[in-house]
Amino acid sequence: MRLLDRYFVSELARAAFGGLVLFLGLVVGVYQLQDFLRLLIREDYPLGAAAKCLVYAIPQNVGWVLPVAVIFGTIMAVGRMSADGELIAMHAGGISFRRMLVPVALLGLLSVGVLYVVTECVAPRALAANVRLALQYGSKGKQITGFQYTHVEDNQVVRHVFASSLDPRTQTLIGVVITEYRDGQPQEVVTAQSATWQGTWLRLAHVETTRLTPRGPLTLRAEEARHEIGRLPDTVEHKPEYMTIGEMRAWIADARRQIGSGPDRGRAVAQRIRPYEQAIAVRRATPWCALGFALVSAPLGLRRVRASTGVSLGIAVIVFVPYYFVSYTLQVLNKHGGIPPEIPAWTGNVLLFIVAAGLILDRSR
Fold first, then answer.
1. DSSP class of 287
2. Which range, 81-95, 245-259, 305-319, has the best average confidence (pLDDT)?
3. What residues does each domain of the chain span?
4. Across the strands, what pairs with 254?
5. Positive or negative, the Cα torsion across 307, 311, 312, 315?
6. What is the CA radius of gyration of the chain?
7. Prediction pTM value
């Protein structure tokens, strides 16, 4: 059986990889190529930067098309082997249909691992790199005027940073005013001609610091100084797709400390924290759809007629669209709801496995 399993897995993997190349080529050719030309012509990107943006978008696209490629590849491989009589020969040799599902399940589990690595480790970094290129070369990279950043803890402002302008390409602030608060009252005001980010610190140039003491204001001047901000306020909004699960957990913990236990805590949690909790649940649940798709597709591929590319493509779309519709609808409905985010994230997978079990039992009779 080991030889037979290797043969079956190789057929499945070859067909799934072909589907991945096909669907990825369609996405890149139809959508990403237009974006590439837009960056070159309208945004005046250098050729190298536009090419990098094209490459950085590929991991996210792989996360989208790999489940469909699993459906396509499974139907193609199982359909071809069924049409050629190979599955009939296996059955005559005492191998049941359920035993034939072992290589299919192996392909599904392999796809689960690949999806998790791509969506958790590769895609967030690639998307963040894409945003940095947009800040450097695109229209968003133009100088930002009136940059402000406020750090709040326990519903109280502890730090406010203002700059007359910010150059995102060099992360340089011009005309900086930093106000430190204690118990809601200003305690220190730092002004600087310019400042540059260094991790969670600002390196200030031509600095004047005014501290409010019981004896009155105390002013100190220096050519250079460093001022700790506590965390780096990105010029780009923190979005779940740019973050790993670990980063989202840290962001949630920091947000909970800032929200505290005030009267508006429930609304603040719904607005700031719940989208990240839902993103974590979706990030964990989504890769497992590949296993469900593989188990659903195997019974659908068992037919006497040789599976064509068009038929397999149509079945792949028919299987994928309802799953996506159910999952996406539940996530939207729960965006401001009170149920645990794991329920809408995993419901689509549960329904997928139920359908797979029904199809497998029907074909096993």
1. G
2. 245-259
3. 2-138+278-364, 142-228
4. none
5. negative
6. 27
7. 0.69
